[in-house]
Amino acid sequence: MKALIRKALTGTVRVKKGEMELPPSDRLVYGVSFAIYALLGLVGLQIAHLIVLRSWNNEVFTVISGLIGTITGILIGQRA
Fold this sequence. Notes:
Elements: H1 2-9, E1 11-15, E2 18-22, H2 26-53, H3 58-79
Antiparallel strand pairs: 1-2
Helix pairs in contact: 1-2, 2-3
């Protein structure tokens, strides 16, 4: 999983002799990994809430939406 995230966050920089890949920091890779695992856990929690209580939990959905926005912003911002 970390290799996939590292590849997605690797940027390309143009230098006089061509192009050079600039890998992301380990801190960023671990942060995005944690956010993705947290997102998966929250989706599981929302599914369990739906199955057990048969109702939608707006608070969990709000956190899921926020994490999706954060992860998307990191991926788009790192590529630019």
